[in-house]
Amino acid sequence: MPSFSPLWLESTTRSHPFINPTYWQESEPLVRELYIPNAETWVYEVEGAIVGFISVMEQRFVGALFVHHRWHSKGVGVALSLEVYEQNLRACAFYQKLGFSPVKRTFPAETNAPAQIMQWEKMA
């Protein structure tokens, strides 16, 4: 996590002003050494700099989605999308209820089961 550890710490501290910043500072080694190595993480880069990332824990839930505050409202969070199998009707319905919409259909080679790439859209 060295390349996005500062982004995580800055973003989580800003996003949770109701929690003492010391808690996040003390949690950083645990996040860096345990959570991130055990998650699948995708990053969003601009000119080689990581400005956002999403980490999926245990192949079942989003454990982190952080975007540098200077990149808020610029589509970075939306670009960090998720993939869900079409036959997982419960998950598809859940994500759609949260405001995700399918934007692309895929057939992952590992499973050959149809999946949807879904992105979050701001609800009107």
Quick synopsis:
By secondary structure, the chain is of the alpha+beta class. The chain is built from 4 helices and 6 strands, in the order H-H-E-E-E-H-E-H-E-E.
Describe the overall structure.
- Helix 1 crosses helix 2 (21-35).
- This protein starts with a helix and ends with a strand.
- 31% of the residues lie in helices and 33% in strands.
- The strands form two sheets. Strands 1-2-3 form a three-stranded antiparallel sheet.
- Strand 2 (49-57) and strand 3 (61-67) form a beta hairpin.
- By secondary structure, it is an alpha+beta fold.
- It is built from four helices and six strands, in the order ααβββαβαββ.
Keywords summarizing the entry:
three-stranded antiparallel sheet; 2 domains; alpha+beta; single chain; 33% strand; 124 residues; Aminopeptidase; 4 helices
Largest sheet data: 3 strands, antiparallel
Give the spatial strand order of the biggest sheet: 1-2-3
* Content of β-strand: 25-35%
- Helicity, as a percent range: 25-40%
Q: How many structural units, i.e. domains?
A: 2
CATH architecture of the largest domain: 3-Layer(aba) Sandwich
Would you report the number of β strands?
Answer: 6
Low-confidence stretches are none
Order of helices and strands: HHEEEHEHEE
Stated plainly, the CATH topology of the largest domain is called Aminopeptidase
> What is the distance, rounded to the nearest whole angstrom, between the alpha carbons of the first and last residues?
36 Å
- Provide the CATH top-level class of the largest domain: Alpha Beta
* C-alpha-based Rg, rounded: 16 Å
CATH superfamily of the largest domain: Gcn5-related N-acetyltransferase (GNAT)
Number of DSSP helical runs: 4
Kindly report the oligomeric state of this protein.
Answer: single chain
Secondary structure class reads: alpha+beta
Overall morphology: globular
